[in-house]
Amino acid sequence: MTVGVTRENIAIVLQRPRYPENIGSAARAMCNMGFHRLIVVDPGIWDEERIRRLATHAAGAVVDGIERFDVLSDALAPFGHVVGTTARLGGQRPVLKSPEVLAEKLIDLSRNNPVAIVFGSEDRGLTNEDLKYCHQLVNIPTTGFTSLNLSQAVMVICYCLATATRSDPPAFTPRLAKRIELDRMYEELTEALVRIEYVQPDNPDYWMSRLRRFFARLPLRAGEVGIIRGICRQILWYGNRRYEEGSVDGKTMEDGRPLR
Questions:
Q1: What are the residue boundaries of the structural domains of the chain, listed by start?
Q2: Three-state DSSP class for residue 12
Q3: Taking every annotated instance into account, which residue ranges of this chain make up the domain tRNA/rRNA methyltransferase SpoU type (predicted)?
């Protein structure tokens, strides 16, 4: 039996696209490859007439179904796996250097999990803040000139996803934790680690970036995220109780060391 990517579980997300024409062209590219869920976040200009002009009548249904959000975190909340596209390599960006490799990985993953493929703005791409929501990154190889038109990038990724197939039986893939569940886990984990002084309170995001990359490599399920959140809540509860029991007029604990 030949299996491929589950198209209905794939969404294309455009983060801060600047021009309506690029939104329309992206919708057309998606329609060419059989993908229909398009999400637009904080567009620079929203002009539906200009969007439809480039989408053409054939992709009208994709335009009709566009979901719009003001912030990326809200747009990605229901997804179990998020892939960011980037032209930049090296540094702290662990990047898959082939869309074909990504497509192969998503054959199994997309069977039971909603997957978002995120594209950044035409001039800046995805920022480091955007990338913290991504489980992995993919790069479209180019020669010399790395900049691609937004709709061209969407077409390349969608083509690779549409043509990826495998003949062996599909592997079991669990339902992964959604992005909103992970974000709440990171919030509680940050608070607990700041409270026990494992990370510096003045710049917790810097210290948490390594933990985010570590957890991004793990296919965390909802129940596992719940366990981590429960541990964090217990740390905070116990810390607050010890502070209240050990303080004298709210000053110090029994051993003379303040908890926060």
A1: 3-166, 179-246
A2: strand
A3: 10-159
CATH topology of domain 3-166: Alpha/beta knot (3.40.1280)
112, containing H or E segment: helix 99-112
The domain defined by 179-246 folds into: Helicase, Ruva Protein; domain 3 (1.10.8)
Residue range 69-91, pLDDT digits in tens: 999 999 999 999 999 998 876 65
Closest CA to 11 of 73, 60, 56, 76: 76
Phi-psi group of 9: left, alpha or beta (phi > 0 → left; psi -120 to 50 → alpha; rest → beta): alpha
Q: Which tens digits make up the pLDDT trace of 104-145?
A: 999 999 999 999 999 999 888 999 889 889 998 999 988 877
Q: How many CB atoms lie within 10 A of CB 44?
A: 13
Beta bridge partners, 10, equal 115
Cβ contact 14:62 at 8 Å: no
Lookup result for tokens 């909340």: 77
What are residue 106's phi and psi, to 5 degrees? -80, -10
pLDDT digits (tens, 9 = 90+) for 35-72: 999 999 999 999 999 999 999 999 999 999 999 999 99
Other beta carbons within 10 angstroms of residue 167's beta carbon come to: 7
DSSP track, 132-191:
TT-SEEE----SS-----HHHHHHHHHHHHHH-EE-SPPPP---BPPHHHHHHHHHHHHH
